[in-house]
Amino acid sequence: MEYLVSVLNTYIGDENISKWLFLGLAFLSAVAFTISISILINNSTTPLKRRLNKISSINKPQFTGSLQTEQKNTLESIEKYVTPKSKAEQLNTKQLLMHAGYEKSSALTSFYAIKIILSLLALVTSIIVTKFIPELTTQKVVFYILLSVAVTSYLPNMFLKKLADKRTKDLRNAFPDALDLLVVSTEAGLGFQAALNRVAKEIDSISPALGQELQIVCQKARVGISMPVALNQFIERTGLTELQGLISIITQSVKLGSSMGDTLRDYADEFRDRRMQRAEEEAAKIGTKMIFPLVTCIWPGFFAVAVGPAIVKVLDMFASR
């Protein structure tokens, strides 16, 4: 603690103010860490799962609801302080959060609150670590502190991008199977909404994320939202922009009441071919990706086993002379 206060005192010049500032930062870090844990736990489920959990816990004590209400009020109160002013950045981050499965209205505030918390933790940790390296100059200490804060503030963006890409990829790979089931259901005589509801239940065992998204579409259609709007919101949530043409065909067929079996079958074949092409593309990249582990891991061991004894014998021969 004395070391941290002395570091702060080098910038402020008043020891009392430095002590109070350190205590304030420690308190804020503890509060921020507690809030971040509750945010992560609260945002770990999709809206559909939260609704199912709410239905299943009707007869349970209602203290959880009050806790969530207090947390929501807390997030709303800090929203203007943690979210960026740029509307473009907010829109881009909100879109990534939706693609990653975080559709709650407070997800954006939670994300930026976590970034600030990680930055504060990195700041405190880096200051503590530099205490054990006394040979570092003040300039280097400041540089490493700023570097750690910058890295920790960037890591959530990278993690969110990876999470969104992975979920979108899983949805894209599972959609041809869902489309095949939709073709079979519609040709069996079910209406489009009934067929979509059946597909959402059946595809849940293969892709829970896609099953939940299709169930959300069915739920929105049951509460009065038109099917075209619900399907367009499905594209916005999942990021599957290549489905726009299919959604237009489905919307037109729903409005006109015409059969869509042949059209859906053609789209199912097309999406299945795209999935096969993506798999072949990934397989073609394996040779290039294997170069690095071969060069760094396998070849040195091979040469050590194959050429090592010969080198030892040659060295022994020259040493005997």
What labels describe this entry?
321 residues; mainly alpha; 83% helix; flat
Notes on the protein architecture:
The chain has 321 residues and is mostly helical. The chain has helices at residues 2-12, 15-42, 47-56, 63-82, 87-99, 107-131, 138-187, 192-202, 208-222, 227-238, 244-256, 261-284, 286-289, 291-320.
Chain-wise SSE layout:
Layout: H1 2-12, H2 15-42, H3 47-56, H4 63-82, H5 87-99, H6 107-131, H7 138-187, H8 192-202, H9 208-222, H10 227-238, H11 244-256, H12 261-284, H13 286-289, H14 291-320
Helix pairs in contact: 1-2, 2-6, 4-6, 5-7, 6-7, 7-8, 7-12, 8-9, 9-10, 10-11
Number of helices: 14
Helical residue percent band: over 70%
Topology, number of strands: 0
End-to-end distance:
64 Å
Work out the strand percent. Answer: under 5%
The largest sheet, given as strand count, sense and whether it forms a barrel, is: none
- Uncertain runs are 56-67
Output the structural class.
mainly alpha
Overall mean confidence score, pLDDT: 76
Domain Type II secretion system protein GspF: 179-307
Membrane topology: Multi-pass membrane protein
Pfam families: T2SSF
Main location: membrane
Question: Could you give a quick summary of the protein structure above?
Answer:
This protein is mainly alpha-helical and 321 residues long.
